Amino acid sequence: MVRRIVILTGAGVSAESGVPTFRGPDGLWEGERVEDVATPEAFARDPARVQRFYDARRARLAEVAPNPAHIALGRLDRAWPHDLLIVTQNVDDLHERGGAVRLLHMHGELASAWCLACDARSPWRGPLAAGPACPACRTPGQLRPDIVWFGEMPYGMETIDAALMRADLFVAIGTSGQVYPAAGFVDLARHAGARCVELNLDPSMISGRFHESRLGPASKLVPAFVDEMLSAL
Ligand code: APR
Fold first, then answer.
1. Could you confirm whether 107 is annotated as catalytic?
2. Cβ 99 under 6 angstroms from ligand 1
3. Is there a contact between 207 and 233 (Cβ–Cβ < 8 Å)?
4. Among the four 23, 28, 81, 159, which has the fewest Cβ within 10 Å?
5. How far apart are CA 31 and CA 231, in angstroms?
């Protein structure tokens, strides 16, 4: 019987809300080079450019809304009486707005700013390019996006590893399986004895490592999957 669930989500879960994915024809990394905007070296070289890139993405959050996949996961979170951890690689806030609470943003959050002067992380909705003061220490010009860039350590890895080691069920939703460590979660969970299910629009790089892959849009697959989970309670 399934009790302990770990769910990993990627850009595909937010695609139908109008948030672009990273890879593929209209992907974010088609228009921008990772090395220009998503590494600590890029930020050191040209902070204004990096800030503008994330300012634009942060501003978009006000224009998008959770879709049926986010809302179904919020419903699962409220109703599931056993362990559940939703790990997202997404930096948008659509899972929260869809009602998810047991949520971990492993790649950081657009709606948060990290102060390089005092190390505080503060909720942040506006732009950072003009170098505003940190709400915690008042130092100006030291806030960076609270985003995990390539070459940086994802957040919450101890919590995630522990949950994967205990999981009965691991579900990956809308992720292409090209970025580690998230792409390796299926191996950890499977090795630890979890059933592994993938819900994705197309076969991913790592489909073969799951026990089951269901293909289709997250807005259809996720609500159906959540219904199945809750009806088995
Ligand atoms: N429903 C389900 N899946 C979808 C949908 C949809 N409507 N639309 C797209 N997908 C799938 C694509 O088929 C693809 O496999 O979502 C996946 C998105 O893949 P990526 O764009 O690579 O996004 P992701 O896997 O989240 O990227 C991981 O890479 O650069 C980074 O840090 C960034 O967190 C991100 C990480």
1. yes
2. no
3. no
4. 81
5. 43
How far apart CA 152 and CA 79 sit, in angstroms, is: 35
Sheet holding 195-200, edge to edge: 103-105, 84-88, 5-9, 169-173, 195-200, 212-215
Give CA–CA dist 100/121, Å, rounded. Answer: 21
Q: Tell me the helix, strand and coil percentages in the chain, rounded to 5.
A: 40, 20, 40
Quote the pLDDT of residue 223: 98
For a substitution probing ligand 1, which of 175, 197, 206 has the most ligand atoms within 8 Å of its CB?
175
Q: Which amino acid is at 22?
A: F
Whether 68 contacts 219, CB under 8 Å: yes
Read off the tokens for 181. 């460590």
pLDDT tens digits, one per residue of 191-228: 999 999 999 999 999 999 999 999 999 999 999 999 99
Q: What is the model's pTM?
A: 0.98
Residue range 131-152, pLDDT digits in tens: 999 999 999 999 999 999 999 9
Answer whether 145 contacts ligand 1 (Cβ < 6 A). Answer: no
pLDDT digits (tens, 9 = 90+) for 57-83: 999 999 999 999 999 999 999 999 999
Give all strands of the β-sheet with 108-115 in edge-to-edge order.
121-123, 108-115, 143-147
Range list of β-strands (E), 174-225: 195-200, 212-215
